Every structure is written in C-alpha cells, then in structure tokens.
Amino acid sequence: MNRRIRKYIISTVILATALLGCKEGTSKSNVEKAIADVTNNFPQLPKGNLSQTDFYRLVRTVSIGEKRIHLQLRATPDSINDQQQIIILINPIGEAYAIPFFSNTYRDYWGFEFETPIQSVERTGSTFKKEFITALDNLRLNDTLGTGRQIFYEMLQSLLQIEKVSENDSSLFEVIFITGKKYDYNLPVETIDSCLARKSRNLKAIMKSIHPAEHYYNYNAYWDAENKRIYQITNQGKNRWGKFELEMKTYRQDCIIHPIDL
After folding, report:
1. Which residues are registered as beta bridge partners of 250?
2. Which tens digits make up the pLDDT trace of 97-137?
3. Which of 234, 236, 231 is nearest to 251 (CA)?
4. Domain assignments of the chain as residue spans, ordered by start
5. Are 126 and 192 in contact (CB under 8 A)?
6. CA–CA separation, 5 vs 9, rounded Å?
C-alpha cells in the first residue's frame, strides 16, 4: 500500500470518527432539551438541579436498526417517592421528543376504565395517547409506511418489556397488588373488596374483546407488571399501512392500601 493511499484511509477514518462523535453529542444534547421541555410542560414531573439526563437515569434503550430510530426509557431516582418515568423517541437525524410515562397517581393521563381522576391530584391536562401521537408527528415518524405502528409495538414489547394477556391469565385479576408507599397517604384508600370488584369489572371488559373475531389468536391486551396496568389496543390490526392512530383502553390493577405500623 503506497503512502498516498494510506494517508487517504487514515484521513477518512478520522473524519468518520469525528462525524460520529459529533452526531452522538448532538443527540445527547437533544435528549437533554427534550427532557427539559417535558418537565416544563408537565410540572408533575420532578426536575434535576443540573443535568436532566443524569437525574432521569437511563433504564433501557432499544434501537430499530433498519430505520435508525432509538427509544429510551428513563426514570427518576429510587429515592423519590412516587417515581415517574419518561419515554424518549429519537429519529434518524438525532432529534428527540420526550413523553411522560406517569405513575397511576395521574389517572386523568391514563383515563383508567371505571375510574375518575383523584380530586387532590393536579390534573396533567393531557393523555398518553395524545402525547405519543404528538411525538410521532413532531419527529416526522408517523408516515404511511407503518413506522408509527412499528415504534409503538417495539416500545411495548422491547422497551417496556410488556407481556400479552390471554384467557389463561385470569389470576392477574384475583391477586391484590398493594401500593402503600409514603406518597399514597394523600390518596384515597381502597379496601380489598373494592379492589377485587374493580378488577372483576376490568376482567369482564378486557375478555369481552380481547382479540379480533377474525384473528382469534391475535390478543390485544398487554400487562405492564412494573406499573400494574393493562393496556388494551382496540384498533389493533386495522389500517396497518396508514398513519398510526392509537385507540387504547387502560385498566389500573394496583390497590392503595396503607401498611400498618407496628
């Protein structure tokens, strides 16, 4: 290999490395700005004193390789009561948009079936459905090629690691998942009987339309074990190649029962 070719190869490698580093730096600064924007828009989300990307720790990241799209799940520190999470979408050119992934405290955001918002909790003024579609639109990812749909299901299955619900999962509606941390003392207390009654209503509603009639194996309900929620996608399988439209019902599966100090 002559000296001129060697210099060309070295110069190309250096330039590519510099461009990659620049892109990664830009993407990180865009994520920082996205988190700052969402915490400003939703004061229910706590803020870090300095770097928001340090405050909201990275829990998991997923890449949709062929489309060069990245998803991040971030969460507040473990020391914070009523922990909150944020989902970050990053498009192929590094632009980022943050979506609140609130706890069950914010019932207006999730629009839980058979429930109303808690009077003592400040309302968010939005919904997960609205914020997710807004993120796709702002990042120009809601095309007619099914990109928005692919991102949504990649988020459910890979980023959030959520499992599908079937007729064999009725035990999810019989077990009491107790939430009883410090922050709950300002929330209305539930009894075991009221919890079981609500979960029984959830079970009947979910199983009534758990899969499209034409595709009996294609279940449309998803169990979020970490957050104790079930998401039912009521338009699953429809309009696969148009712009993604999210129709979702959400069911709360936890119970607010205060522990007794002995």
Report:
1. 231
2. 999 999 999 999 999 999 999 999 999 999 999 999 999 99
3. 231
4. 23-159, 163-256
5. no
6. 6
